[in-house]
Amino acid sequence: MPIADVAARLEITNLVPAGGELVGPCPNCGGKDRFGINLQKNIFQCRKDCSPHAKGDQLALVQLTLGMDFRAALEWLCGPAQGLSDAEREDRQRKAAAAREKQERIGAREREKTIKAARDIWFASKDAEGSPVRDYLARRGLAAELLQDLPNAMRFDPAAKYVHPVKGERGKWQTLHVGPAMICAVVDAANRVTAIHRTWIDLDQPKGKLLLRDPDDAEVFLPSRKVLGSKKGAVIRLTTPKDATTMIMAEGVETTLSALIAERQPRQAAYWCGVDLGNMSGLRERGPGKKYAGLPDMSDREAFVPPPWVKRLIFVQDGDSEPRLTRAQLEAGLRRAMIKNPGLKGQIVHAGEGRDLNDILMGQHQ
Description:
Distance between the termini: 51 Å
CATH topology of the largest domain: Dna Topoisomerase Vi A Subunit, Chain: A, domain 2
């Protein structure tokens, strides 16, 4: 039984989706966001470690929530040894379905809220041409003579707020920085903005990116890039030439642009940025021996799939992450695309160990 169904039967409905998890108060010790359910791995954890059963599988979740020992939790979950009556089984199924529907409504409301916030920022942003975005891209080796026209998917916000969650207080945020940022529109299959990808700019830094320390750990720098909204299955459409049949996609904006400027004029391929590796991959099949198999979970109906006009899909593999797992994720994304679009050909190109295409452009790791 999927752990989400167990949570529904337990009527744990005050959780919100966050990066492949359901996150919220712990059903045992409360709090705001200390509790998380990993939907892929079918496990949960309370980060406060509120009891001996503060992490584990479906049975451990029953033990934690209802305060039962193992045998009692097994009976609650699976029924007594003599079995459940048809009426008891139907009642359990009805209650679990009602709890799932409630959780889905909560998740849908949160999703729409973040999409609206992303759209508001996007439509209030400014033209990137003539802004510090140009200076930032030049720092990344993408000078104006190489990238003469900035994509329409790129904009500029002179006063972007960098907000960060207050530790231990779900729903409470603090503004750590306000400053210039490059903004890219993340759009779904219908070309509707569902998220924004922001890169905070600090031209005093060698690579032009903001360096911001974590307020809870001064030894840690927070990421200079953040996504707001719903990115699942969506992409940043940098260029899409008329009559294109080839699509080239990388994780990062700068890496995708580095591939773009390497193509001879006139450019004929579409260059779309996948936002991150997990988004390019979608869910993968799990189980013994499948970690590196690169098999797509075809039940993931929200994963990215290229449009039908794409006949050749090329994924760019960065060399600065774990190579086997990275390749498995990219293979899963390509296989999903080939299953959905029969006749499509998929290919992975590798920038080399310890580097990405933008590193090569900047003359690093040669």
